[in-house]
Design goal:
Blueprint lengths: L10 H22 L6 H12 L5 H17 L7 H6 L3 H15 L8 H26 L7 H31 L4 H27 L10 H26 L1 H5 L3 H4 L2 H99 L3 H25 L2 H6 L1 H6 L2 H8 L3 E7 L7 H22 L3 E11 L2 E10 L11 H17 L3 E7 L2 E11 L4
Length: about 525
Amino acid sequence: MTPRRFQRPGEHWQGPLVAVGYALAWTGLSEISRPLLDLPAGLRFGALLLAPRRLWPWLIAAEWSAVVLLHVTNLHPAGGMSAMLSMLPRPLVAGLLLLLQRHAPPDATGRPERTARLLLAALVVAVGVSLLNAALTFPVVPLDSGAFLQALARLTLGNFVGIVLVSPLLAVLLSGWPDAARVQALMHDLVLVLLPATTLLLLLLTGHFPLARYALGLSLVVALFFAFRHGWRGASLALSIASLPISLLSAPAAHASATEGQLFLAIAGTSALLLGSSTDALRQTCVSLAVQNARLANVTQRLDQLARQLEGAARRNLQEEEGERKRIAAELHDELGQNLTAIQIRVKIAQTRLESAGLGDVAASINDIVATMRRSVRGLLESLRPAALNEFGLTSALTEGPLRELIRSAGMDYCVAIHGNPRSLDEAMRVTIYRIVQEAATNCVRHARARQFGVRLRVGRRHDECLILLDVRDDGVGLVGSAESPLALGRGLTGMRERVLALGGTFRMTQGSQGLRLRILIRQPHSTA
């Protein structure tokens, strides 16, 4: 057994209440409607479009009841047969909308593509209803080809204009306005623009002016203005108010044919709704882009914070690494160096005894081993903590000392150019620069087969940061000639790049016929200098 669906409170009364309200609205619009504008057709289309399908029978029954009531009370302008025949198109409109909703569902949400489908559906419904009315009235009205086609065109345009004027306005009344600021701007334009334009249009239509036949074009200007300023909602409201003089007066035919008035309103309504929906879509896109830009700005800010945190962590790691190197170098110098010195002294003391025992070669061998160990320890200490950098500073360490001896011992010319004050750099920056030049010089001596090796260091200030530009180059064969030991060279370049990136700098390497070139740019905050 299928369980019974519980209905919400008041749902039983929703259909009758909607029917009563629709009948009253339809009766009021039928009283102010003119052959130029079929406003009840617009109400019928909009109500069937916006209402759920379960309320469609109530709407059709309400309109039939209103037609019968007007006919019984002799308030309907049509005769008995015409009034009864005019009741037949109501189910046709529902059927056409049902068919259109299955293939290209129209709605009144204001999106450009859906507004286009809404206008297309309005045109299809207007043509269908007009053809049915023409077929029903054919036995009653004598057929004249020219008059019949003209009447059919007026009927179709009247239905279409009525739909364009009433259906969007009904959607505005049901959906409301986006925010209070737009409502305030709309009221401002209603007072300053729409009411004076409507008054001017009324004067032009009721007077006998030479250009009165072009007065209907004013409604197009007003509709486009409100569409551009307030979207499709403002366009529908402006169209409804601007069309009141045309709807209430029968005089426009004195200045322009009814078909001209209908064409003006059809063009104005179609253009305004399309422009208004496009304006709303553009504004929505701008709002979405603004939200996305704000999110991207927040993400970028977070990434910048993370980058600064990572840079700070990397800088601390370098400082800790250099501190550990310094500690290890001190331990090696104090412990291993002293022990080697003690061994060498002991060997010298025992050298006379060893020689008398015929073991002089053993003493010489031990001295050679100790000397080799001392040189190895000295090289290890130099790699752990450059003595020249500690004792003389960065400028002297680059221009003199082990680097110059290394380059000159390989038969190459060594050129150094330093601009600025390297003393303003912190310890991590000075050690990084020296390590990069040291590694580049070692690679050049081992693999490049170069004749010249040059270093250019420029230290400058800009705003609150210190800029360091390091340029290292040689005229060797580049990386191609390093096939003897590609792994070591790769590790060296990787170490350089990691050191530079750890300090938030940029590392660029280029090579060509003139050799290998390294260009490093690092920014150091003024506070750390």
